[in-house]
Amino acid sequence: MAETKPTAAKAATSGQAKQSTNVISWIAPIVCILAGYTIWRFILGNPSGFEEPATEGWFWPKHHKPKGALNAIYEGGIIVPFLIGLFLMVIVFSIERFLTITKAMGAGNATDFIRKVQYHLANKNIDAALAECDKQKGSVANVMKAGLKKYREMTTAEGVDHDQKVGAIQKEVEEATALELPMLSKNLVFLSTITSLGTLIALLGTVLGMIRSFSALGKEGGGGDAGALAVGISEALYNTALGIGTSSFAMIMYNVFTTKIDSITYGIDETSFTLTQSFATQYK
């Protein structure tokens, strides 16, 4: 019992060190939506890009007859800024996850790292194995290092039977794993949510565009205004295109990062197996 208390205290200390405020998770969405509106209002909706610019309506001026393709996107309506904001969010969180996961993967191949540790443990050279962890510096190395420290402690522990020693090593690895894995999957929820949300918001924009089209078609005794009809259809199609593009991009990045996380998780599982099997065979 005396040996498990320091472990718990150490895990609590490590857990406190791992905690972070994750400011990006609530600042980034707000900034991206505001940036999306800014791009839509002042770049895509620049009055110089329209043959008939509006002079009223600061928040949403009703410009007509765009001169270029980018200016035509402005006619997609007020849903477009939200879709641009979602696209920017995908970029921001993709960069953030790329930097975090790249750091977590460490230096060099995780499989080669585990083989080197296995070699050193086979020669009962725990210090050399710990040195390999310092070189690798990834999540797998962090878990391995925590397990190796407990491994070394158990080699000299007295008054504890063999199964309890193996269990203590395994528990240490599980605690270290519990600290590492949440850091890998953090903020991926934004990418998975945007995968669905982008399509739904685009569908809303499409519906609004079609409402405008049918409204224009029903005017003037059914003859309708061809220009207003075209604007409504373009609004629907621009929203559809932006939503599908954003959702597709989010889905691709989500799958890329989950694949990388799976490879790291596999390496962590190998860590647990390596340490417990090595101790079980060499310190019977």
Automatic annotation (TrEMBL):
Any coiled-coil regions, as ranges: none
Major localization class: membrane
Membrane-spanning intervals of the chain: 23-43, 72-95, 188-211, 236-257
Similarity comment: Belongs to the exbB/tolQ family.
Subcellular location: Cell membrane; Membrane
Domain MotA/TolQ/ExbB proton channel positions: 139-266
Name of the featured protein: Biopolymer transport protein ExbB
GO biological process: protein import
PANTHER family: BIOPOLYMER TRANSPORT PROTEIN EXBB, PROTEIN TOLQ
Membrane topology classification: Multi-pass membrane protein
GO cellular component annotations of the record: plasma membrane
Assigned keywords, A-Z: Cell membrane, Membrane, Protein transport, Transmembrane, Transmembrane helix, Transport
Pfam families, sorted: MotA_ExbB
Domain of life: Bacteria
